[in-house]
Amino acid sequence: MNTKLKVSEISKIYPGCVANDEISLEFGSGKIYALLGENGAGKSTLVKILSGVVRPDKGEVFLNDKSIKLNSPLDAKKNNIGMVFQHFNLFETLSVFENLSIDSDKKNEDLRLSVNNILKKYNFKIDLDIPVLNLSAGQKQKVEIIRCLIRNPKVLIMDEPTSVLTEQETEDLFVSLKQFSDEGILIIYITHKLKEVLSLCDEVAVMRKGKVVSVSKTKEEKIETLANKMVGENLSTIKKKINNFKYSEEILKISNLNFRSDDPYETNLINLNFSLKKGECLGIAGISGNGQSELFQILSGEIITDYTSIKFRDKEISKLNPRERREYLMAFSPEDRISQAAVPELKIYENVALNNFKSSNFFEKGLVNEQKIKEHSKKILSNFSVNTDNVEMKSQFLSGGNLQKLIIGRELITSPELLVCFNPTWGLDVGAINYIHETLININEKGKSSILISTDNDELLKLSDRICVIYKGKLSKIMYVNEVTPEKLGILMGGGSID
Amino acid sequence: MIKIEKRNDVSPSIYFLTPILAIFLTLFGGGIIFYVLGFNPLEALKFFFITPISDLYGFSELLVKATPLCLIAIGLSFCFKSNNWNIGAEGQLIFGGIVGGGVALLFYGHDGFYVLPIIILSGAIGGMIFAMIPAVLKTYLNTNEILVSLMLVYVAKLLLDYLVVGPWSNPEGFNFPETRQFSESARMPILFDGLRIHAGIFITLITVFLSWLILYKTYLGFQIKVSGLSLKTAKYAGYKGKAMIIIVFMISGACAGLAGVGEITGPIGQLHRNISPDYGFTAIIVAFLGRLNPLGIIFASLIVALTYLGAETAQIFLQVPKYTGQVFQGMILFFLLGSDYLLFFKIKFLGLKKNEL
């Protein structure tokens, strides 16, 4: 079965942004195609057009030389185009089989038969009758893939599929994808991870600012060449100096930290112990949902546990709220930029005022000192290269990267002794990621400490001095970064042990 | 096919202009209703909105009605701005009236400058304590403040009923459900002879100014604003969320209590069953029509007060029931919510393409 998919001169314009600008690409079955680009390059828009979620302003899609109309996701299904989104569309409390039967028009017996065939054929091990919430991220993704396979897809589109997977699950996924490709399914793989492009795909189309800037065979590409095409400039790669902290002073000590939650969607933390030295960066790896968010909130003081013992510079701070902890020179950058670290509806200087010290005098005798806050904000905007100097602007008009620079700047401008950050570069483009990484390395070089909770292993390996893994609320042993490999992290993240 | 999309950018000037649009639409809608009822719409609207304030007495009455509405609405704006849905201001008003009225009866026959301030203060405290019930239940037992504050309205109403029929009823009152007339020392000073406008208007104006100061110029106001926009951010910034819920309810309750005590020591002069024509509920409309903004609330309270007056005039001249006033209040809210919806969302009419047929 030979499939040819062609998009021709596709354009989609959103107010103030050209998401797709005259995009023309051709795909043929038997190959895996990578669609590579930064956030905001237009990959998602193109993919949404192919899956019928978004209608293009201009242009046509041809399947086997026939023009097809994709006005709704249903049209995409009718044309045998399957799509696995980055965020799963599954009902957590329903069983796997119930989830599969929801959008299937087959009889239950027939459906079970064909699902079992798929499971056997691709060696997927999933119990069809347990609720989806008991599955790992990798298994959930397989359920989504099975949902597509039931319909005998000609085209399968995967949107950043590995962002939630462990190393091992990623390898399994790649094996399956190659198998699908050998069977004649045309695979389009969307990612911004360069290594995956090189190890999995046959051809790669790079997108930048809504345009296709290059189409090439992956054999002819290297990480550096792809990175430069993606960003459009030569990137300097920063490296961290390896430090020896043997004689350095201990700044933070967590002993026997336990957290039990009544909320079934939160993770309990079990007996955490670690300490942090001056100038050190401790990386905490793990697949999201293993207790990172709870740990961050306990460190920041948003959650106060009775059993916690947190000593910061020899002072017991377990009972203090976030504002009081800031007075002790701690700083926090949460994962959720848009609804936690900052409020988009507030002006820039108002968001700066969220981080308020007694000594900063933002609020003298209970009154707002706008003048002072604005001056302080201007300083942050220029010191941390945020691309505006208008402190009266609403924060919602800042791009993700600039908002994160503002937040990191707000937290760092008071030179705290410890910065706790959670996925600081999540969803940012390469330029902003580089800037944030440089900043984080910089504070360690100045003798300040940091805790980096992240789901991005490359970032952890690049920035941390020591790394441990959080799995189901428990911490693995802490390792020096030079003894850690991505494989080891992957095993620990999946709940395995490495000794 | 119709598609509804969120608008990203709403300009502030339009945000404050839509309430005015809503008022004009209400006039238009009201005209249609009068026309259907067989009146000349323009003349009817004139009776409703112009006749009542065409003389000094009418204008004074307008201020008498606007005084409690504005006071309650400004208190509610503290709650609404911080995402606390206090809809029991009517109950807080009545309870403030009960406490203030009780103290007034206690001082029956006393003279002295201190009597009125004590009554006013106790009324404010009464409203404040009554408002703390839903706030404390919300913070410590996770109850829903909308339900609790609303149900407490009926508790206050029934308590007032019991008191004026039973223990507090006027011994010389032939079993009418009302208390004695308060003595002169317990009454709000009248500003002009022959008019009912009383010193309560100054309490309202001072409260509006203080509220503006607190909401826009203080740390507390900033915390209220942040909590209203994102509770997660407030928690992350280290604001004491529980304390703030209780504080905004206390402010709101105190304002409603003040309004209640202003009514019974002002125009009414005693306690009886109907000390408030639903001011506490109508003030919710005032608060939103005024965009939770102190200046806006002053204007909104005048306009809504006019619907009370207009209803009375219309009852006399057009023989329509005075509940027409509530119809107008309802229309204002309806058109305000409607134009807000169009302000924040746009509706796209997509033509049907041939292949969809």
Question: Which CATH architecture of the largest domain in chain A would you pick?
Answer: 3-Layer(aba) Sandwich
* The CATH class of the largest domain in chain A: Alpha Beta
Number of domains of chain A: 3
Major sheet strand order of chain B: 1-2
The largest sheet of chain A, given as strand count, sense and whether it forms a barrel, is:
7 strands, mixed
CATH superfamily label of the largest domain in chain A:
P-loop containing nucleotide triphosphate hydrolases
Estimated structural class of chain A: alpha/beta
Give the biggest sheet of chain B.
2 strands, antiparallel
Summarize the amount of helix of chain B as a percent range. Answer: 55-70%
Q: Which parts of chain B are unreliable, with pLDDT below 50 for 5 consecutive residues or more?
A: 353-357
Helical/strand content category of chain B: mainly alpha
Q: Name the beta content range of chain A.
A: 15-25%
The total strand number of chain B stands at 2
Largest protein interface, residues of each chain: A-B, 32 and 23 residues
**C-alpha Rg of chain B (nearest Å):** 22 Å
- Outline type of chain B: globular
Mean pLDDT of chain B: 91
Helix content of chain A: 25-40%
Query: H/E element string of chain B?
Result: EHHHHHHHHHHHHHE
Number of helices of chain B: 13
Give a structural overview.
The complex is a heterodimer of chains A (499) and B (357). Chain A is of the alpha/beta class. Chain A has three domains: 4-231, Rossmann fold; 237-329 and 415-499, Rossmann fold; 344-413, no CATH class. Helix content of chain A is 33%, strand content 25%. In chain A, the strands form five sheets. In chain A, strands 13, 16, 19, 20, 21, 22 and 23 form a seven-stranded mixed sheet that branches. Chain A is globular. The mean pLDDT of chain A is 86. Chain B is mainly alpha-helical. Chain B has a domain at 65-305. Chain B has helices at 12-36, 41-49, 56-81, 89-106, 115-141, 145-165, 200-217, 219-229, 231-237, 241-268, 279-289, 294-318, 324-344; strands at residues 2-6, 345-349. In chain B, strands 1-2 form a two-stranded antiparallel sheet. In chain B, α3 (56-81) packs parallel to α7 (200-217). Mean pLDDT of chain B is 91; it is low at 353-357. Chains A and B meet through α10, α11 and β18 of A and α8 and α9 of B.
